[in-house]
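Worked example 2:
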Amino acid sequence: MGAPVYGAVADVVELLGGIDPHDTGDPMGHAQRLTNQHVRGVFRLLGEVRELGGDCGAWRSHLVTSMCGLVGATVGISVEAGWHPGQPPKVFVMVDLGWSGAAERADFQNFLRGDRFASDPAFRAVLPFVGRDYSFRREQLVDGRTWYAAPTVNDGRRIANIDDTIHSSRVLPTPGGADDLALHRPWKGRRFNERERLIVELFHDELAHVWRYQAGRNATHPLRTLPPQLGLTLRHLLGELSEKEIAARMRLSPHSVHAYAKVIYQRLSVTSRPELMARYVGRPLFNPELLQAGS
């Protein structure tokens, strides 16, 4: 089976309630709906992200920069995280771009690491949705009076010069995994509208669909089906280390590694390491890459 086939752009727009070029209705209503141009931009970005998918830093950086352009954000943050009951979230990778200077970025990093973030009204508002897909504008989570009266907003976000936000999250097909995307505008700048939220929602839905589709195919990947020790040996065999170097990495004897390799070849019906690599190198578990998949 090939890659997932996306519907024609016009069909997607119709499903989303996109603008009919012959519609002469309320123009203000149009400002909250997606056009063909918006949908094409989303799917173009999705294709570009997939082309860069083997480099986690590259595809996330391109995603952040491009999405900021699509919705008029100044700062964008893309995160792969793991959530487990009773534990703080584990961040596998975070790319944040668009800061006007190193000081603003440092202020925001300090805000994230400090105790203030736990009481941030936006963070507290999305906690009930952890483990679910969502895309919210700030005003859908917290009203303006509560937002600007919160000490964490004034002491954290204002100092970092970020204010209105779109926060989007998608559940990943990895244990406790979540892909988070946050877009920000400057302090007291223009608020995001519903059309801009829909752009983010559509992109994140389609990106999550790619990963979930791949998860079904990955169920038969040998890195998923082999016992842990054989799976770890296979992961090294698919790299550039020699069997002697693999033995040192795994703290095993070269004889044990060679024996594991022979078992792997037999199970996967190959006769040599070059044949193994020809079959499985270049077949990533997830594209765009997810770091948690290999943890």
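Residues 222-294 form a domain with the Arc Repressor Mutant, subunit A fold (CATH 1.10.10.10). Confidence is low (pLDDT under 50) at residues 1-28.
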